[in-house]
UniProtKB/TrEMBL annotation, chain A:
Species the sequence originates in: Salmo salar
PANTHER family given in the database record: GUANINE NUCLEOTIDE-BINDING PROTEIN BETA G PROTEIN BETA
One biological process term in Gene Ontology: signal transduction
Any coiled-coil regions, as ranges: 4-31
Name of the molecule in the record: Guanine nucleotide-binding protein G(I)/G(S)/G(T) subunit beta-3 isoform X2
Entry keyword set: Coiled coil, Repeat, Transducer, WD repeat
Entry's family note: Belongs to the WD repeat G protein beta family.
Stretches forming WD repeats: 51-92, 139-179, 180-221, 222-263, 308-340
InterPro entries: G-protein_beta_1-5, WD40/YVTN_repeat-like_dom_sf, WD40_G-protein_beta-like, WD40_PAC1, WD40_repeat_CS, WD40_repeat_dom_sf, WD40_rpt
Pfam families: WD40_Gbeta
Gene for this chain: LOC106605091
SUPFAM superfamilies attached to this UniProt entry: WD40 repeat-like
Superkingdom as given in the UniProt entry: Eukaryota
Automatic annotation (TrEMBL), chain B:
Pfam family, one: Phosducin
Organism: Salvelinus namaycush
CDD domains (UniProt xref): Phd_like_Phd (cd02987)
InterPro entries to which the protein is assigned, alphabetical: Phosducin, Phosducin-like_reg, Phosducin_N_dom_sf, Phosducin_thioredoxin-like_dom, Thioredoxin-like_sf
Protein name, entry field: Phosducin
GO cellular component: cytosol; nucleus; photoreceptor inner segment; photoreceptor outer segment
Length: 340, 235
């Protein structure tokens, strides 16, 4: 019993040290720093294209790095790769399971991946020799649902799962390279840093963790949310992390100061955030809520400056292209729309 | 404030993201004929956050028993379920009062009332006009037309001077269209004529509002044509 007391004291001591260290580096607040900045004017986005072809609710979408193609996953059990300029379907891939939670486009454009309630991450080769799209690998090791996956390259992919872990896979051999354990609740989302050296994960233990991919360690843990973190993303310059939670708020955490900078909340918003995407400059944050609305926030002033889709309550997922020129939304009525 | 419809009472916890998928799956299993009643009872108990062991379930979203239930699913049952899902969503977000013509607002109070007091699902489009300013008369007739085509939207118009904020609505920003929903300003379009050609019609205003995602679907198709999508072409 004595040893437990010792350990508990040590843990509390360390927590106090961290809190102190954070206080020391906090020389100002974000609000003070941007006091002289004017609020961004009202943002009103227009639909430029509508992508039709799915037969059911769109669960997830991800832009390709060429900013022209994107992939979407739907309850109809299909992955569709779209050319967003012509609205043509480049590939329509039937899936074994209809309960797909995530999809990802490889930076090279050669592969797409998806996963969901089947606990597996399926990798598809888009550039097969005979022109057909086939399953290249089925990465199975997670004991829980696959909530998110992101490619590092054509040979590595990171997945987050309802089994509370994240895994770095070797696609070639189909085996786990590193298992990132530490979260105490289902991992709901992950995002890779712009330099591909780190990744962040948000989980149902109300915390977000920053992991070093090569060293396989958890570098930092961010708390403050009062409920599950459903969505997570890097601030475009890689120095900050944005999280979206069931507590109806989004938070911005600075990596170097190791603390929260600001919370994006409004007394009128009472439902959880389930997806988020910052604009290229990082000035705007598009946050998708579980009532199918999307709010656009001025990230510096922490005020809402618009809504996407005129509040018609249809958006189930969002993504901003890497050149910042457009955002794509998926809907419960099977359509995807491109906006800017 | 109108009383909530039955559909609103049964709103599932989360509908988007991975939790949305879990929710949808649970709902499907509960409604699927092939699921044994004991399993249905288990699912209902799990998705109802009143259980005593809530502390244990706090961090884990799916139980061991549920993972075991995920097996080969019946495609036909799934297809029916998807159609039903979309139909339910559509009904949930379409219920609300209807209108048949453009309402003339007489003063600032009427303006505020229409913005703040309408049903939370009703889209309110207000046209601020002034007699003699180019485009106002044309826009008024366009809205008269759209009011009959979109009965769920409350179209209104008010003379700039009557708003009580006449200085803000000088001739050069008229005609102006403001769009509200649930007390929130969704769209603010000043000098509408700059977005339109010399001669414009109801269809042009309709297309304009559609671009900003402000108009509801006119006709709802529960599910896009199955045969059409089966023959999806690949480039």
């Amino acid at each position: 019993m004595g040893e437990m007391e010792e350990l508990r004291k040590e843990a509390d001591n360390l927590k106090d040290q961290i809190t102190e260290a954070r206080k020391v580096v906090q020389d100002t607040t974000l609000q003070e720093a941007v006091a002289g900045t004017t609020l961004v004017g009202r943002v009103q986005l227009k639909t430029r294209k509508t992508l039709r072809g799915h037969l059911a609710k769109i669960y997830a979408m991800h832009w390709g790095t060429d900013t022209k193609l994107c992939v979407s996953a739907s309850q109809d059990g299909k992955l569709i790769v779209w050319d967003t300029l012509t609205t043509n379907k480049v590939n329509a891939i039937p899936l074994k399971s209809s309960w797909v939670m995530t999809c990802a486009y490889a930076p090279s454009g050669n592969m797409v991946a998806c996963g969901g309630l089947d606990n597996m991450c399926s990798i598809y080769n888009l550039k097969g020799k005979d022109g057909n799209v086939k399953v290249m690998r089925e990465l199975a090791a997670h004991t829980g649902y696959l909530s998110c996956c992101r490619f590092l390259s054509d040979s590595e992919i990171i997945t987050s799962s309802g089994d509370c872990t994240c895994i770095l896979w070797d696609i070639e051999t189909g085996t786990e390279k590193t298992i990132f354990a530490g979260h105490l609740g289902d991992c709901m989302s992950l995002a890779v840093s712009p330099d591909f050296k780190m990744f962040i994960s948000g989980a149902c233990d109300f915390t977000a963790k920053l992991w070093d991919i090569r060293e396989a360690t958890c570098r930092q843990t961010f708390s403050g949310h009062e409920s599950d973190i459903n969505a997570i993303g890097f601030f475009p310059n890689g120095n900050a992390v944005i999280t979206g939670s069931d507590d109806a708020t989004c938070k911005l955490y600075d990596l170097r100061a190791d603390q929260e900078l600001i919370t994006y909340q409004d007394s009128g918003i009472m439902c959880g955030v389930t997806s988020l995407a910052p604009s290229l400059s990082g000035r705007l944050l598009l946050a998708g809520y579980d009532d199918f609305n999307v709010n656009i926030w001025d990230m510096l002033k922490a005020e809402r400056v618009g809504v996407l889709a005129g509040h018609d309550n249809r958006v189930s997922c969002i993504g901003v292209s890497s050149d910042g020129m457009a955002c794509c939304t998926g809907s419960w009525d099977s359509f995807l729309k491109i906006w800017n | 404030m109108s009383s909530p419809t039955p559909a609103e009472d049964e709103v599932p916890a989360i509908q988007t993201g991975p939790k949305g998928v879990i929710n949808d799956w649970r709902k499907f299993k509960c409604e699927d004929q092939d699921t044994p009643p004991s399993k249905k009872a288990l699912l209902r108990q799990i998705s109802n956050p009143q259980s005593d062991d809530i502390h244990d379930r706090l961090n884990r979203k799916m139980s061991v028993q549920e993972y075991e239930m995920i097996a080969e699913e019946d495609e036909k049952g799934l297809r029916k379920y998807r159609k039903q899902c979309m139909k339910e969503m559509h009904e949930r977000f379409s219920f609300g009062p209807t209108f048949d013509s453009v309402v003339e607002l007489d003063n600032g109070e009427a303006f505020l009332e229409v913005i703040e007091k309408e049903h939370r699902l009703t889209l309110v489009v207000v046209h601020i006009y002034k007699d003699g300013v180019k485009g106002c008369e044309a826009l008024n007739s366009c809205l008269d037309c759209l009011a009959t085509e979109y009965p769920s939207i409350k179209f209104c118009r008010i003379e700039a001077a009557a708003t009580g904020a006449g200085e803000r609505f000088s001739d050069d920003v008229l005609p102006a269209m403001l769009v509200y929903k649930a007390g929130e300003l969704l769209g603010n379009f000043l000098s509408m004529t700059q977005h339109l050609s010399e001669e414009f019609f109801a269809a042009d205003i309709e297309a304009f509002l559609n671009e900003y995602g402000l108009l509801p679907e006119k006709e709802f198709v529960a599910c896009p044509d199955e045969e059409e999508a089966a023959g999806v072409e690949v480039e």
